[in-house]
Amino acid sequence: MQNRHKRKQQHELKRQNNKKSAETISNTKEEEPFPSHARPTPDECRAIRDSLLAFHGFPQEFARYRKQRPYLITLQDKEESSHLINNCDEKNDNGVKVEEEEEEEEEESVLDGLVKTVLSQNTTEVNSQRAFLNLKSAFPTWENVLAAESKFVENAIRCGGLAPTKAACIRNILSSLMEKKGRLCLEHLRDLSVAEIKAELSHFKGIGPKTVACVLMFNLQKDDFPVDTHVFEIAKAIGWVPPVADRNKSYLHLNHCIPKELKFDLNCLLYTHGKLCRKCTKKSGSQQRKETLHDSCPLLKYCDKLS
């Protein structure tokens, strides 16, 4: 009995030490890299959020995740912008009204969300979704994926590109989980602090800051702001980060400056806008662009301020 009590005390002490260590590492790594760069201001964030909502509508691909955040708008925002959110919830990114689904989708597990994010790297949304569906069809459980030969996992996700790399990453996550936790589940992350979550997920080989931030924002409902290529390009174009900023430092700076209640909507809208519009970043691309249907990009006036 005494031995069991002693082991319990040791386990609790170890958990507390790990928590302190994670917080120390997080605080060290996440200091504001550009303290003298005053942008974006809260007012700018709010104005761009509302401009992009009016221009695109809220992106339907993120609607299911938004429903898990019932209180996104602060009291001072409610009168001026809640009508935009409400009006856009039923529109796709072309402003076309869509019928509300009769049945609510089952909440996505944290592990499913992590694997989906891994599969989304360096490919299109359509291909990454197809790869995930193929994987779940071929292997109904994560235990099946872990037990399978790598070549079969690669075949299942090949349409998403980089199949050997992504298969190795997924299998490494699963094997590490089984070794450390004894089961293939990440739901325990819901009870941890952001610092602890980052520390745990970062231990997996191939999992970087953007992937961790996506899981935090979409699957754990934390107020985080992932910086992918689209968000990064726009942030540079409108002067929200200095010209010398890289993606990692942009992530730290934007998370420091953007109000928590605006992070989710603003991130989803900037990502969507970056895919559909090339005017504000002066990039060319083969994807159909939003400006072909509209006279101008709503962010151009912010870019003009830098000219």
Automatic annotation (TrEMBL):
CDD domains: ENDO3c (cd00056). Residues 28-45, 85-98 have a biased composition (Basic and acidic residues). It comes from Salix brachista. It comes from the Eukaryota. Pfam families: HhH-GPD (PF00730). Residues 119-276 form the HhH-GPD domain. InterPro entries: DNA_glycosylase, HhH-GPD_domain, HhH_base_excis_C. This is HhH-GPD domain-containing protein. Signal peptide: none annotated.
